[in-house]
Design goal:
By secondary structure, the chain is mostly helical. The protein is 64% helix and 4% strand. The protein contains 36 helices and 6 strands. It has a 6-stranded mixed β-sheet, covered by helices on one side. Helix 36 links the parallel strand 3 and strand 4. Helix 33 crosses helix 35. The N and C termini lie far apart (72 Å).
């Protein structure tokens, strides 16, 4: 650094033995300006020494440069010392005050800057059009609205109210202090063509969710002919996205293209984000592909958008492409990809992402810890979820606690959910809407009726949270499982609004367990009206009739489905093995190992029969002989998947993990428990309702599912 600095020689070498040549205030001021850099404090201090030895340190111009130099070198105390030791005659110089105030603001000491301005006013030193914007920016940073209003009054009294710099700073002050009405008044009375205050107000309107006003200001800027730049367009696009008006968004996109800002990365990122939020992934991908340069924000916007939309395979592919192009993911990108891993049951990929997260140090972020807990909980690895939770001791929020409470509930560990909730309250965390869904769900699957009722009633009484359809659905499920179907119907009558489809489905499921056909028909009729294209209520009603042996009614429901064009979602089971996903449907013989799989199924059925298994043909969906019903049940998709798992995982002790898109039937549930016992395996089955951890003939759900 020394070799790069060229300080003017103040003492010519030829005259060193004769007499020194002292600098004047202007040359010394230029030298101090040259030393105003954080990398050059030593040279600045040498220049200060020259100022002292040449008796120029008290000169107002040199003193101001010294204050500015020390401020630029991040030495605010030295700057204040220069100011405090200046002669009284210099303290009437407003440039000196302004330089010190600007230095304090530059070094983040906004309160001290405001106090210096107050002292400046007390001493009768008038501000200039640089002093006022500086102190106004300090007020904005501290959100000191009252002090800022006083500075505004000072600007009006001293004639600087019309200064473009002052007006821009006033807009920033009022915007940062959420007084958008005052900011708007300042802006509307301004004759300046400076786009900065307009951009400031548009940004703050967007941040305050006043999107219509932000778009109105954007239109006014355009009509006034003000320059729209890389600061204007992103905020306007963000407001257009939240407004949900695709027409406005496309109009702004056209303006971006005409003005040539489509190649600007920040504007292009805002365009991708806008189209993603509007769920217009075709245009989002089009902008993305045309960008000459993409950063982590670009990739993350598209990745997280697809993850939220449910396009998890696309999100995972984007993450892979992102890494292949050398873009380092941030905490938002990894949280998004973990969400997709959780939803697509890609546990092994999720573990790889977890390892990369630890390597990059991203596990320190709360959002990432929460996503990891959710991943492991939704993949049936609840002990790994707990391990992540324990490591996040100093960075837990309500979402962290709720994620594990929900995880325990879904994995059949209702008691652990309730104990964790007590620990959550003991840690001072406040439960939210989702927390109570997990709690009541846990009580439902553990058969804890009274505990569930207590938590449900505490929502509004203790925490002011109004129960929603999800809570009523869990309560109906809880009461229905315990045989209190009439009490469940009574609870529905106390709802503030009309029960939605999820609530009626819970009631219909309870009717199947307790074979309450009249109530099942009533619930199904409501569902036919609420969700006419949903096949689930038809299937559930048919199952009620099947359990009761009313095959003519089963045929009638199926005929009704055909007449209304409603198709049943086919049942699928799948598992991950050898880096690939293997999917099965009932009776499926298309798999490459079909011959081995069906042979293993026959072996499985023979071995569990020796343990006392007898097929519950009430779960068969066709009216045929008992033997035919038993054969139909034997080749359900989850049994084929387990057979495949037994064939391909015999040599290692890992659990057999199977995922199913529908609810497991009672006969398969019984059969899989016995299969886990006779083969000495752990079978983890996730159906549409919860996880079933099966070992030694016992399931974690306690046969409540």
């Amino acid at each position: 650094m020394r070799s790069q600095l060229h300080i003017p020689c103040l003492l010519p070498r030829c005259a060193l033995s004769l007499r020194p040549i002292f600098p004047d205030p202007y040359s010394l001021s230029a030298l101090l300006h040259h030393c105003s850099s954080p990398a050059l404090p030593r040279y600045g201090q040498q220049a200060h020494a020259i100022a002292l030895t040449s008796f120029l340190a008290a000169h107002p111009l040199v003193a101001a440069r010294l204050i500015g130099m020390y401020s630029a070198c991040c030495m605010p105390k030295a700057a204040s010392l220069v100011f405090n030791t200046a002669p009284n005659s210099a303290l009437s110089n407003r440039v000196l005050w302004t330089t010190l105030i600007a230095g304090l603001v530059r070094n983040g000491d906004h309160r001290a800057a405001m106090e210096k301005f107050r002292t400046m006013q007390v001493m009768g030193v008038p501000p200039n059009n640089f002093t006022l914007p500086t102190v106004l920016s300090a007020c904005a940073s501290e959100r000191a609205l009252r002090f800022g209003c006083q500075v505004h009054g000072c600007a009006l009294r001293t004639g600087f109210g019309a200064s473009p710099f002052v007006q821009s700073s006033l807009v920033g002050l009022y915007s940062n202090c959420s007084d958008l009405a005052s900011a708007d008044r300042v802006l509307q009375t301004s004759d300046s063509d400076d786009p900065v205050p307009w951009n400031t107000l548009i940004v703050n309107c967007t941040r305050s969710a006043r999107h219509e006003h932000a778009l109105s200001l954007f239109v006014q800027m355009h009509l006034r002919g003000l320059a729209l730049d890389e600061f204007t367009f992103p905020s306007a696009l963000n407001s257009a996205a939240f407004s949900g008006d695709s027409g406005i968004g496309r109009c702004i996109h056209c303006m971006v293209l005409r003005s040539g800002f489509d190649s600007h990365r920040h504007v292009a990122n805002a365009l991708v984000d806008m189209y993603v939020k509007m769920r217009d992934f075709t245009h989002a991908r089009g902008v993305f592909d045309q960008m000459p340069e993409r950063d982590v924000v670009t990739w993350t916007s598209l990745l997280v958008g697809h993850a939220r939309q449910g396009s998890h395979e696309v999100a995972l592919q984007l993450y892979s492409d992102m890494l292949a192009r050398g873009v380092e993911p941030d905490e938002f990108a990894v949280a998004g990809v973990l969400s997709s891993c959780a939803s697509s049951t890609a546990l092994e990929l999720g573990r790889q992402v977890h390892a990369a997260i630890v390597h990059r140090g991203l596990d320190a972020f709360v959002s990432v810890s929460n996503a990891l807990i959710t991943l492991y909980a939704r993949s049936g690895s609840i002990d790994e979820a707990r391990a992540v939770f324990e490591k996040s001791l100093c960075r837990r929020d309500a979402v962290t606690w709720t994620a594990l409470i929900m995880g325990y509930a879904q994995n059949g560990r209702g008691g652990d959910s309730l104990r964790l909730y007590d620990a959550m309250l003991g840690a001072g965390a406040r439960p939210d809407y989702v927390t109570f869904i997990g709690l009541i769900f846990a009580c439902s699957h553990a058969g804890l009726v009274e505990s569930g009722r207590v938590h449900f009633e505490s929502m509004e009484k203790v925490y002011g949270i109004t129960p929603g359809p999800e809570h009523y659905s869990c309560m109906v499920d809880l009461l229905g499982r315990s045989g209190r179907v009439e009490e469940a119907v009574e609870l529905l009558g106390r709802m503030d609004g009309e029960p939605d489809a999820t609530v009626w489905k819970s009631l219909l499921a309870a009717c199947r367990v307790h074979r309450n056909i009249p109530l099942a028909e009533r619930a199904a009729e409501r569902l036919f009206k609420l969700a006419p294209e949903d096949a689930v209520p038809y299937v559930m009603l048919a199952n009620v009739y099947t359990a009761a042996g009313r095959w003519l009614d089963v045929a009638r429901v199926r005929s009704l489905m055909r007449a209304r064009g409603v198709s049943k979602e086919p049942g699928w089971s799948w598992m991950e093995e050898g880096g690939a996903v293997h999917a099965f449907k009932a009776g499926d013989r298309d798999h490459a190992q079909a011959k081995e799989i069906f042979a293993k199924v026959r072996e499985m059925m023979q071995r569990i029969k020796e343990e006392g298994y007898a097929a519950d043909t009430g779960f068969a969906l066709h009216d045929e002989e008992e033997e035919g019903k038993a054969e139909e049940l034997a080749v359900h998709s989850e049994r084929l998947a387990v057979a495949f798992g037994l064939i391909n995982s015999a040599s290692h002790g890992k659990p057999i993990r199977v995922y199913k898109n529908l609810r497991v039937c009672g006969d398969c549930h019984t059969a899989l428990k016995l299969i886990a016992k006779v083969y000495d395996k752990v079978i983890i089955l996730r159906d549409a309702n919860c996880f079933h951890h099966m070992r030694d003939g016992i399931c974690s759900c306690g046969d409540h599912w």
